[in-house]
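ok trying this again, last paste got cut off
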Amino acid sequence: MLQKLLYAIFYFFFSVFLIFWITATFFLTPITNFALKDFELEVKDGGTIIFDPVQIALDVRDFSLVHNKTELVHFKHLIVDIAALPLLKGDIAFHKVYLEGLDSKVRLEQENVFLNEVDVLALFDSKKATPELAADDAPIANVKDTEQTQELSKDAQAKPLNIAIKKLQLKSIHVEFSQPELATTIDVENFNLNRFSFDGSELSAQTDLQSTIQLTVDNPDNPIDLKTDITLDTKVLLTLGTVLDVDVDGFDFALSNTAVAAAGYQIDNQNFHIDSKTIQVQLENNAPKSIAAELSVSQQSLVIRPLAQLETTLSLASLTLKDIVLSNDKTQLVFTPEVSVEQLVISTLVAMQGAEPSDPLLSLDAAEINRIIASQQNVNVDEILIGKIGMNATMSKDKQLTPLFLAPAKADSDTTPVPESPTAKTSTAATSSEAVANPEKNTGTQESTDKTEVAAATEKQTESKVQPNIRVGKVTLLEPTDAKFRDFSVKPAFNTHLKVNTLNLTEINSLAPQQITKFELSAQLDEYTKIAANADLQPFLPKPQYKGKVTVDELSLPELSPYVSSALGYNIESGQLDSKVSVKVDGTALSGKSLTHLKSMELNAIEESGEKNNLSGGAISFNAALGMLKDGDDVVELDIPIKGDLNKPSVGLSGIMSLVIKQATMSAAKDYLITSFLPYAKVVKIAMSASDHLLKIRFEPLIYRPDDIQVQDEQLEYISQLAAALKQNPDINIKLCPVATPAELGSEFNKDDRIQLAQKRGVALKTLLINNYAITSKRLYSCSAKIDADDDAKPRIDIDQL
């Protein structure tokens, strides 16, 4: 009988359970809607909710939560499968969590949350919730129950909650999230989280993600639009404690089809990839303690261009960083990270490329940087290898470099200072009075000021840290560069082509300041000009030292005329320049010399009125001086000293070159003239005019004894040299200007008598030069006689060249 009763009870409960299981699908939706009715929410018809009480599994399909016919959240399929046995131990374990087809719009505004423009927090207002019991109506807690609750609480604290998810999968998720000035769209194509577990001290998970993120920042000053596809495959183990250990076993991360619009530019990148075998990080007190990682980074097809334009600002075919190792120096007390890269490879870099097929401003076929080791203290690079470089620059008529394809610059904001109002002044005065009247408050202000000063001092100290030491083993140009330059800002337009054939730098090392860095360069300008340079550099000495030599052969000068004509005062019609320059820099002091040959150089004066072709007029022009120095092969040799201070540049390079050559030429011509006129040193004096760079030839005056009219014996040497100089230079014409003094002839004679005395001297000298030295009279001009009343004046005849 008892056995029959037990069977009956079992069959009854089993039947009830079976009926509940079978009919749950039909009752769960109405029950859910009944619970949500007070919040004006309901589950839309058409979906199904299945609950399996045996497996504790929930299966929901085509679920839509609506408010007044407005759909708030929709998803296609949800599966939550909970393991029953761990629940008995107080743990939570999921066999499977699967969510597919979630579609929702979320907007945050101040303290409100909107789903599809419905304020969901307002729906859950406390007025609609079950009223809480008043304090007087609240039941008195049983002491025994309270003690049991406390014991349970202690047990819960002693045993942390364990969470495990065998498999979590998100598929076809679309969420639009927005807040003021920020909008984000997240599309998750597929996200897998496998074997996730957390026991309070350790968290582990294996993640596989494919997602699309779209971000919009609605900022009027700097709007941003971003869209990218993300893939991630990794296995992570986190160990919690005083020290947080992060152990990543395999890390494969990629951004593909990235498009960013920001700061006036459109940035497109096909692929960015990070691949790592292992990453280990330790954090202590939220600060890094140690790091160990091995990874590689690659980037493919980067293009940057101004918004809504076809021209390219920058493009890069590929960038690869191979065998990156992150570590830290464990011998140091503080965290000192170090990174090493076996090789960095750049392929096809192009800057400023037009929409139509044309040469870009800059191009680089390839470059390699090998064996890089960098830390906070040191940067070490074994070698830098540079492939073919191309340049194509043009200077427009208004001196703008082209091609440049940049985003339009934003107009500067109005920063006009606002005058301080009387109210503000009164407020400032009141604040000062309050500080005096309330010393305690003032003390607080002072303490704040002190803290600010300490922070500023700390920041300054941080900024003044020693710069890292740098070592570069060598820099080598593997292929010749090809640079073209056109300048339409000068007339005639300048056009040149530079090819750098070799470029080598060896051993740049700030740790060894005495070590000499070797520099070598060879280049060709246009078809025939050859340039070679070599130097010994010591840039890291307290006073940097540089010694170098530069050789220039067959530099054609007419093409450079537009740049040097204003400084020279002449256009260069023809000519070549060969130069050997030796320079030395000691700190900022520049010294050296240049041996320069000007071959067949012909000039054309810009202003003919200022041109002096010979000694006529008492001056020799630069062009005449140049012609004077030419040898039989039409070559001018100049030995030019170089001296100056690098911190005090006065003119541009072209100005320096032309002025140095001009001054050197005039100085050499002066020496030549002094040598030529050496037999006539008593008569002729040569000086350089600083204002117009002309050589001035001056004749010394012929001094007389008071009251003398005729030439005396001591004056004959002067007259002989004057006559010889006139015969040697038949183009020179002179004027004779007699001068008397007030002391002559005694007090009984007047001014007219002294004027006549001076006139007689001029006539006597002219007659002597004509009769005794065969100087034609047409070369000798007379001046009006005058009296010189200066205290140190002497009777004389001034001789000036016409």
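PB: full thing came through this time. The chain has a mean pLDDT of 78.
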